[in-house]
Each structure stands twice: as C-alpha cells, then as structure tokens.
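Lecture notes, continued. The same structure-token format from the folding unit now serves as the input rather than the output. Read the line below as a description of shape only.
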C-alpha cells in the first residue's frame, strides 16, 4: 500500500487526484492521511469526494473514508474498466478536476470511453474547459492516444450546471513519450470573454483593455457565446498558438475587481510567458508532468519539456508520481526557462 501525507508540499487536492489516478493505473492500494490539512476547510469537499467516487466507479474500488470533511482515505482499486460514465458535482465545483482524475487510467484502458460530466466548467484554481480543449488535449494526441472534448453548457460559480462530454481513446500500443523543449514560431493569438449574466460593457472593457496591452484588435477580440442562466460568471481567456504548442491563460472577474484590473492582470501573465523561452507555462507544466511520466514508464524512454516556472504545485505532483511509477524527475531552474526531464527508473 502506498501511504501519503496529504499535507506535504503544496498540500492541496492535486495530491488526492494524482494518487487516485495512479492507484487505478498501477493497481496499488492507497492510504492518505491529513487530506488538505492546511486549507481553511480541510478534508474532502464535494469536488474531491466526486473525484474519489469517480475513481472508484471506473475500477470497482473498495473505499473507506469517502465522506465530506474526511481527512483520511483508504482506496483499493480493481482493474480499470472502459465504458460510458456520468459524473456530476452538485453546485459549481469543477467537473474538469473529475476528468483529470479518471483520464490517466481510462487512457490506458482496453477500449474507448465516453464520460459525461456536470458541474463547474470555468473555475478559479482549476483547469477551465478551454484550457483542456486547446492546450492539453493536443498533447494527449502526441502520445498516440486521443481526447475529444465537447462543451454542451458552461457552468460558473455559484450556479454550476455546466455539461461536458469527453471521449477518451487509448493508444494502439504503449504511450509514446516526446520532447517539448521549444514552443516554435508564433502563429496566432486571440482573447475571448465569457460573461453570462453580466452587462455587456464588462466583457467589452476587459477585451478592449487586454487588446490595447497586447496589440490585438478586431477578430482577435471575441465575445464568447453564453446563455444568461449560465452564470453570473466572468472568464477572460487568452489563447497563444505556436508551432509546437498552444497555451491558454485565464483570468476570472470578481465583484471587487474592475474589468480593467482583470485584463491588466492577465496581460502581465501573458507577457511573463512571452518573455521566457519555455515551451509551456506553469499550469500546463503541471498537467504535462503526469502525461509524460506515464509515457516514459510505458515507452521505457526518457523525455523532457521546458516551462516558464516550476511551481510548488508541480513539484508536489512530481513527488507523488514518483511514489507510484518507476520514473524520476530532474528539474533544472534557468533564467529564461526551467527544464524538466522524466526518466524510467
């Protein structure tokens, strides 16, 4: 049994999600104590409990401690089963984090799976739908597998109610590791604002401010199609397409923050990435670490990527991955980029 301290490193829900995914992938039982112990509301919240239940559903796992507020969990998986699944989070908790939990094992299952998800689709502190669709899914395809995502309905806090469909197609053979050390030539950039239930001047000001900061105009500034009852919500997204990778950065509006402040904050994040020589930003690095570790393990070959920043979140994720898979991460900090190499142990 793999025993983990849920308060280690960054100490958040990512420890739970990665360990659940890899427990199902490897068949190793899991025990976690002190789940989210350092958070204002420690233990399992609704979205974390949804991840536990989803991992159990795809593997027929035996579970102890799966209840709201629990800081202790025992998880003994069976074999992963491809199929059609429906997972819902009541309220606006991120259903994209549930997908993050079940995706790795279903990528290695014996057949295609279709997963219907409902809950929040664009949440702070979670990968938004458009990030997974535009930045993450293409990297899954480079491994030889496929991930097709369809947004049926947006879900914003506090209403939730978003709907997403994911079709997960395993590779014909082992996942194939690849190097992603350069982003390549810049091809396109655009901004898009989703603001259901808000006055039109709010997204217009955000887009105009971001456009002015980035030198974007016209077709590069887009109002996303949303329904009035999908919010109220406010997600300002910027997509940067390069030769080898696409990155998506998102800023979320709040009542106490002006439209101009939201846009300037996102522009600052974009400029920091553009100044670096890295292939990916800090959030995509976090997601890529697990994908590449699975590929290095299956393909028995080292791989590497560069990122603009290695966060504590990413370092913690790498440490959890090393507990389950026979791989080793080597992280090299640099002024213009950080290098991450994953090697079979």
């Amino acid at each position: 049994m793999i025993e983990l301290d849920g308060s280690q490193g960054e100490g958040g829900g990512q420890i739970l999600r990665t360990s659940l995914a890899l427990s199902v992938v490897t068949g190793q039982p899991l025990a976690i104590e002190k789940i989210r112990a350092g958070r204002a509301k420690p233990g399992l919240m609704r979205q974390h409990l949804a991840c536990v239940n989803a991992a159990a559903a795809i593997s027929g796992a035996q579970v102890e401690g799966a209840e709201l507020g629990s800081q202790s969990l025992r998880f003994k998986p069976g074999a992963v089963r491809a199929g059609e699944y429906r997972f819902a989070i009541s309220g606006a908790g991120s259903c994209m984090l549930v997908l993050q939990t079940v995706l790795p094992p279903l990528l290695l299952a014996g057949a295609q799976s279709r997963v219907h998800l409902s809950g929040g689709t664009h949440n702070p502190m979670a990968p938004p739908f458009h990030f997974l669709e535009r930045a993450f899914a293409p990297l899954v395809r480079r491994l030889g597998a496929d991930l097709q995502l369809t947004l049926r309905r947006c879900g914003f806090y506090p209403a939730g109610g978003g709907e997403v469909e994911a079709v997960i197609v395993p590779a014909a053979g082992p996942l194939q590791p690849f190097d992603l050390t350069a982003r390549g030539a810049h091809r396109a950039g655009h901004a898009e604002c989703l603001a259901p239930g808000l006055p039109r001047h709010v997204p217009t000001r955000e887009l105009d401010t971001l456009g002015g900061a980035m030198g974007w105009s016209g077709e590069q500034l887009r109002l996303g199609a949303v329904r009035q009852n999908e919010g109220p919500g406010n997600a300002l997204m910027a997509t940067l397409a390069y030769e080898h990778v696409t990155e998506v950065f998102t800023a979320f509006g709040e009542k106490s923050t002006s439209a101009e402040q939201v846009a300037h904050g996102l522009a600052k994040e974009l400029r920091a990435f553009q100044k670096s020589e890295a292939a990916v930003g800090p959030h995509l690095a976090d997601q890529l670490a697990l994908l590449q570790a699975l590929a290095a393990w299956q393909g028995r070959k080292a791989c590497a990527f560069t990122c603009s920043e290695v966060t504590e979140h990413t370092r913690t994720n790498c440490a959890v991955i090393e507990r389950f898979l026979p791989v080793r991460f080597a992280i090299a900090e640099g002024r213009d980029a950080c290098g991450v190499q994953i090697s079979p142990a």
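Point for the exam: The two ends are 20 Å apart (CA to CA).
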